[in-house]
Amino acid sequence: MGRVEGKVALVTGAARGQGRSHAVHLAEEGADIIAVDICHDIASNDYPLARPEDLDETARLVEKHNRRIVPVQGDVRDRTALAAAVETGMSELGKLDIVVANAGICPLGAGGSAAAFIDAVDVDLIGVLNTVHVALPHLKAGASIIMTGSVAGLLSSASSGSCPQGLGGAGYNFAKRVIVEYTTTLAVKLAPQSIRVNAVHPTNCNTDMLQSDPMYRTFRPDLENPSAAEAEAGFRSMQAMPIPWVEPSDISYAVVYLASDESRYVTGMQLRVDGGATIQRGL
Predict the structure, then answer these.
(1) Which domains does the chain have, with CATH numbers?
(2) Helical (H) or strand (E) element with 12
(3) What's residue 161's pLDDT?
(4) Which of the listed residues 16, 76, 205, 212 has the most CB atoms within 10 Å of its CB?
(5) Quick count: other Cβ atoms within 10 Å of Cβ 87?
């Protein structure tokens, strides 16, 4: 306990899934939280996104650990609104030490829609850039920036670019690949200021994004309307270890480590929490 005691963390996509898990685990270890989530759907994304009551539940769970939280409904694609959210949070919590740029979508079901590609890139890449860039003026030595990547970001450009998930999947994979280079470049440039920059790359993670009809169809293209149970075999094929997915908490353990002073000399890392998904592909 207390591994990030007294620190303040900005977490995007905090209303549910990985974002909620990160916020709660950081609070459990002593951090106060600025929690941002869009809390409404994006038209090209075929599974429902979080709702305001989900963000309220995140706040309740953080407060159970006797930590403060400033929940803000905001869209990471809107840099002005995101900057205002950070200012609102800092006005109450006083500072900013940790940035977890986590918000993401994967609009697999939109087929050939250009909007699906645009929205995936705007949320998963531009949203990450916006989050980091509005936070940077407030960060001091010892701060930690953590980005949520994906196994998709570690695959080759050729294999990712030819993915079968349509334009939405291609946009998701493209965004995650760019995050790899962005993390490395920013880590080098911020190292003289003792600000660390790392990315965590999950494999299939047991969230609403994964447990959705578009994702089931992606992993079982041989079936017209696969069930969750039928999709599980496809999910298992991703990892070298005999698992269909990891849990959000598995990613949160990595986030807490990278947020804490335990990793004070760790920067530029592409940390895989992937059950061997990349090593079985020779990466």
Answers:
(1) 8-281 (3.40.50.720)
(2) strand 8-12
(3) 42
(4) 76
(5) 12
List C-alpha distances in Å: 199 to 167, 255, 266. 24, 9, 11
Rounded to the nearest 5 degrees, what angle is found at the Cα of 135, between the Cα atoms of 129 and 137? 115
SS3 75: coil
Torsion, CA 203, CA 209, CA 211, CA 216, rounded to 10: -80
Which backbone phi and psi does 38 adopt, to 5 degrees? -70, -35
SS3 of residue 17 by DSSP: helix
Nearest to 146 by CA among 12, 247, 33: 12
- Residues carrying an active site annotation: 172
Give the chain's residues under pLDDT 50: 157-158, 160-162, 164
Q: Which amino acid appears at position 92 of this protein?
A: E
DSSP symbol at 205:
B
Bridge pairing between strands 8-12 and 98-101: parallel
